[in-house]
Write a structure and sequence with these properties.
Length: 658
């Protein structure tokens, strides 16, 4: 019997994440990755599970121990499974026989290995590894410096959030013989090489790279064919855009890929592209389809989910893929002759997909606002029926709130889509406080998925309002591009009009008890809102931007992101200051909690420091909380205890101020 309480921050430790389903070659079974939290050691553990499709079959755990085991891939004959594990300290590649026994380590590289892909004959694995341009896979591991040494910087892209400072390493491609462990390095150079797939005849690998000498000012990615024998690279794309997620058709005639030509910089919609091997023809298969290909859903729970890219049908006449539309991610089929058609469409978040063309079935990872995330069997030949395969989270003792969709008129008459979540234990006739949540990006989308933070706030007695203002994905190219050059303009109006709309439509909201919060771009908008309105009684800004002038030089993406989004560079100080929330700090009267990670290189912590010191100097009510060793991803993949602490701070601040 279901409980009467909502989910709480402490429940983070008992919830499980299920991702990356992989059909076996015979279509009779599958594997997936399940991530749990080890509370005592304050870390994540990921294990690989196996399950057959027989009725009533239960999952069997195939990997054990501490650490993370992930990226499982079946050998072509289904006799072995390759995966990546950090059990030895660094990510290395292991092979496990389906007959049982211990997994066998096949790479022993000083810099580790990732992204293993089987050759068609099952004898070799291609993989990625990180190397200095002067080093090879055969060089021994460099000794750690006993004393700190200076970091020489000559490039603008010298740091990255989550990765830290760049130490001169580039991602390269190598292959390893599965039987004898012999490694052959295939690529070299002062640029990263991404690994995608093998050709069906085993003679080539499809890879991606940006070989431009001035990489600081280049934002493209080209696809190449890498000859296994000669190690030569032949270009597939011609330097016009950003292309990746490449998949070879089974008959060897086509390369399907996802990309765009940067027409609107990072606001460009990704589409399906096709390269014909024999003619060299390259074209977009969905030029008029105003839907972004890929998963752009904002999430805060699933661990390690990855895009399936383009999955070819067995007859090479089409492919399956995921796209984001109107707050949902769904499955579509791209027919080479007849265009795109829906396969599975609903109010849901499809975040994983594996297809078995022979049986006409797919295994789909699905989440919804009240479904944390599980795997389902989908019939591709019939009515699109779903059969549940896993049920990993036992939460019968709690209640989750089902959101109600809303649509209203935003600035300039644009239709804006969103949701309102009622508090747990809602009673007719009672008044409840409302919290406005604002997503990051801004080129992302809220939608029909499980959001742990929202459900916790609903469990604390708050109504939660979340919408997709202009700049969000899922509503067409013009909509996602509309925020560029207008930060704090139409987007601000879209958000404020959302509040006015729900106040007029829902009489259970107490208009004197309103709060606002958001992270990254959502943190910027939270700062902007409290600098332009006293509508909210309390606010929490997270990993935010407060000053575009300094952001330009301190963020890992600052110099180009600022130019793309604000349409100004370091020489246009008046424009950058005009769009900076810090410029309006004297107007800020709303009590503000500032949450920021110490090692956030995307929105560096000096953005929080400037805002906090300015507020305190003016005698405003503000508190700054700094999370040690964490980066921009704290809310999604940070240390479990600090993820919980962040949630506790949000709840406590609103509880005290509203």
């Amino acid at each position: 019997m279901a409980g009467s309480k909502g989910i709480a921050a402490e429940d983070l430790y008992r919830l499980k994440s299920v991702v990356n389903p992989q059909f076996s070659p015979d279509g009779q079974s599958f594997v997936y990755v399940q991530t749990t939290i080890d509370k005592e050691n304050d870390e994540y553990q990921s294990q690989i599970f196996f399950q057959t499709l027989e009725k009533g079959a239960e999952s069997v755990q195939w990997t054990f121990g501490k650490g993370k085991n992930h990226t499982p891939r079946w050998s072509p004959d289904g006799s072995e499974l390759v995966f990546v594990s950090n059990r030895s300290g660094k990510n290395q590649i292991y092979v496990l026989s389906v007959k049982g026994g211990e997994a066998r380590q096949v790479t022993f590289l000083p810099s580790g290995a990732s992204n293993p892909i089987w050759s068609p004959d099952g004898l070799t694995l291609a993989f990625s590894t990180s190397l200095k341009s002067t080093k090879t896979v055969f060089d021994p591991e460099e000794k750690k410096q006993e004393r700190p040494v200076p970091l020489e910087v000559t490039k603008m892209r010298y740091k990255s959030d989550g990765e830290g400072f760049w130490r001169g390493h580039f991602k390269q491609v190598a292959v390893v013989n599965v039987q004898n462990g012999e490694v052959t390095q295939l690529t070299t150079g002062d640029y990263d090489v991404s690994l995608y797939c093998w050709s069906p005849d085993g003679k080539f690998l499809a890879v991606g790279a940006d070989v431009t000498e001035e990489a600081d000012l280049s934002f493209k990615n080209d696809v190449y064919l890498l000859n296994i024998d000669s190690k030569e690279l032949s270009p597939v794309t011609n330097g016009t855009g950003y292309f990746g997620n490449v998949s070879w058709s089974p008959d060897g005639k086509y390369l399907g890929m996802i990309g765009h030509e940067r027409e609107y910089q990072n606001a460009s919609l990704s589409k399906i592209w096709l390269y014909q091997i024999d003619t060299g023809g390259f074209s977009c298969l969905s030029p008029e389809w105003d839907v972004p290909v890929g998963d752009y859903m904002v999430v805060d729970f699933q661990q390690g989910a990855s895009s399936p890219g383009v999955i070819w049908a067995g007859n090479s006449q089409g492919f399956y893929f995921i796209a984001s539309e109107h707050g949902s991610t769904n499955i579509y089929f791209g027919d080479l002759k007849n265009g795109v058609k829906p396969v599975l469409v609903g109010e849901q978040h499809v975040y994983g997909l594996s297809v078995d063309s022979n049986s006409g079935q797919a295994i789909v990872a699905i989440s919804s606002p009240t479904e944390i995330g599980d795997l389902y069997l989908l019939s591709l030949n019939g009515e699109g029926t779903l059969e549940r395969l896993t049920e990993v989270n036992d939460i019968q003792d709690v209640v989750l709130s089902q959101p109600e969709p809303i649509e209203y008129e935003g600035a300039n008459g644009r239709k804006i889509h969103g949701w309102i979540l009622k508090p747990i234990g809602f009673e007719e006739g009672k008044k409840y406080p409302l919290l406005l949540e604002i997503h990051g990006g801004p080129h992302a989308m809220y939608g029909n998925t499980y959001m742990n933070e929202f459900q916790i706030l609903a469990g604390e007695g708050y109504a939660v309002l979340y919408v997709n203002p202009r700049g969000s994905h899922g509503y067409g190219q013009d909509f996602v591009n509309a925020v560029r050059g207008d930060y704090g303009g139409g987007d601000y109006q879209d958000l404020m009009l959302a509040v006015e709309y729900v106040l007029a439509q829902f009489d259970f909201i107490d208009e004197t008890r309103l709060g606002v919060t958001g992270g990254s771009y959502g943190g910027f908008m939270t700062n902007w809102i409290v600098g332009h309105s006293n509508r909210f009684k309390a606010a929490v800004t997270q990993r935010s931007i407060s000053n575009w002038i300094s952001f330009y030089g301190v963020s890992d993406i600052g110099y180009y992101f600022t130019e793309w989004q604000i349409d100004g560079d370091f020489r246009d100080v008046p424009k950058l200051w005009k769009h900076s929330p810090l410029a309006y700090v004297e107007n800020m009267e709303t009590p503000l909690l500032i949450l920021h990670s110490e090692k956030d290189y995307r929105c560096p912590i000096e953005q929080a420091e400037q805002l906090f010191i300015s507020l305190k100097r003016l005698g405003k009510k503000a508190k700054l909380v700094r999370f040690p060793e964490e980066n921009h991803e704290l809310s999604r993949s940070g240390r479990p205890s600090l993820r919980k602490s962040r949630l506790d701070y949000i709840v406590e601040w609103f509880r005290a101020e509203i």
